Amino acid sequence: QLQLAESGGGLVQPGGSLRLSCAASGFTPGYYYAIGWFRQAPGKEREGISCMQTSNGNTYYSDSVRGRFTISRDGAKKTVYLQMNSLKPEDTAVYYCAAEAPPITSAQAMCVGIRGDYWGPGTQVTVSS
After folding, report:
1. Could you tell me if 87 and 38 are in contact, meaning their C-beta atoms sit under 8 angstroms apart?
2. Which end of the chain is less packed: N or C, by CB atoms within 10 Å?
3. Quick one: 68 exposed, middle or buried, by C-beta within 10 A (0-12, 13-18, 19+)?
4. Cα(110)–Cα(60) distance, integer angstroms
5. Tens digits of per-residue pLDDT, 30-56?
6. Distance (Å, rounded) from C-alpha 110 to C-alpha 56?
7. Strand, coil or helix: what is 111?
8. Amino acid 126: pLDDT
9. Quick one: pLDDT at residue 103?
């Protein structure tokens, strides 16, 4: 059973940066998962903001974060990262990482369709002065 755990959230001032980490365990050997970052602000629907196909490295970013956030992974550490720069108050949300098991359509499909077979418990990010 794949398990995910986010870390790195916290309080940051507008314009600041944070790096979120998602540590994974329990991979099925030979499976190429898609990994994504999602967020949910109070009173709003969950939003897929950045997803990656680990089989080919293809990535997707939502319009709300493109150019400010970067998804990356360290295969040896089985960890996926989300580097968040130029943070805005509207980025305040609980951030979740998720994994989608094969067959994978695309990174975009995972994010737009909020597809995840496995989810972490989430980490709070608050952007405020």
Report:
1. no
2. N
3. middle
4. 9
5. 788 999 999 999 999 999 999 999 999
6. 15
7. helix
8. 98
9. 87
- Rounded distance between C-alpha atoms, residue 62 and residue 83, angstroms: 14
Query: Distance between the two ends of the chain, CA-based, in angstroms?
Result: 40
123 contacts 8 by C-beta, under 8 angstroms: yes
With 80 as the cut, is the pLDDT of residue 27 above it? no
55: which 2 tokens? 């089989």
Q: Whose CA is closest to 33, among 112, 113, 118, 111?
A: 118
Residue 24, Cβ density class (10 Å: 0-12 exposed, 13-18 middle, ≥19 buried) = buried
**Residues β-bridged to residue 98:** 36, 119
State the Cα–Cα distance between residues 115 and 13, nearest whole angstrom: 31
